[in-house]
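[Automated response] Your request has been received and processed.

Submitted sequence:
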Amino acid sequence: MLSAWHGAEDAFDKAIAEDPTFALAHIGRARLHQLNMEGGKARAVAAQARELAAAASPREKSHVEIMAAVIESKPKLAVTGAEAHLDEYPRDAQVLSILLGAFGLYAFSGRPDHDAAKLAICERHARHYGEDWWFVSYLGWSHTEAGNLSTGRELSERAMGLRAANANAAHGLSHAMFEQGDMATGRQFLSQWMPAHDRRSFLHGHLAWHVALTLLDAGDLDGALDIYEQHIKPAGRPYPPLNIFTDGASLLWRLALAGQTGLEPHWRDVAAYGEKYFPQAGAHFADVHFALATAMTGGDALETRLAQLEARAADGKLLPGRAAIELCRGIRAFAGGDHAEAIRLLEPAIAELARIGGSHAQRELWEDTLIVAYIRAGHGDKAAGIISSRLDRRPSPRDEAWARAAQRN
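Generated structure:
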């Protein structure tokens, strides 16, 4: 589970068969059911784990309660429980892991400083882990997302050296290379590493998405679309639905921004997948990607989702606040060709973009959209300002092409 490698389900099932009273095996299996959006199974197995934990050690009881809180959609309880648990049992890596990553509890908390929070808790407990392969992976990832790119890359490379069969380290290293603009190296690394990675592993499709980003940056739209069709589109993929949906919608949107045509059948597939797995507002990272797909397919689905988001905001249940709603409205305006309205909505929302969670690479999509809206609306100077700051941070043929387009405006 900690290396994002296929086989965790079978391993937990074997452990349960060996000892049906082993609470930690049950709660681990429940967590995998949850990641695969098998909510009923997840809650049932978590309830069984809680009953079994009554006779377990204090550490095990606490572990089970924290993981059950995650499964039962009680994130605030899970966060406070995890932080207290780690003060007493800092090497409980599974509990630490739920706070970290692009889809962890900190990232989806709605707080704007979640990148700093992830790094802080890693550094707080670093002395207990040393050169542990999993911890070095996530310490590197956390440094990268906090903007410490050289440190993040060095740690991610060290983690790969400690355990090559570690998709989380490969993922972290891919992000470091992306943030540094080292796209060709990132593509070469993944092309050499991925063949040994079981395609059923839950990060495999997302790592293919990273390959597609490098092709997009190089202007190879057909290559990026081929990656989508082979590895990402929702056609019986064995990956968590949140990964499939957000990777698919975001890659198609990036392709559309770059001028790729003929995407309509793919948009319909992704929109239908979103309707199936995320039929109601609630998972806000899915909701903002739902806007991408439904804005491109038309109909009333986006209006319905926006009304649901407004209701959640009114009840204080929309963790990123109104920024999530404005991002969705801005995407709708952009898709409809109203670039002035898209700019009006996206400009202030971008300032709070971090609150939707995910990684820098995932969130960059909305900044990309604002750049293209500026160019199409004749505000080349505004587009150039954003592009210049990006190019100061890293090289990018795609950004250089947008810079030339902005100059013509």
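Summary generated for your ticket: The chain has a mean pLDDT of 97. The longest helix spans residues 241-257.
If you did not submit this request, please reply to this message.
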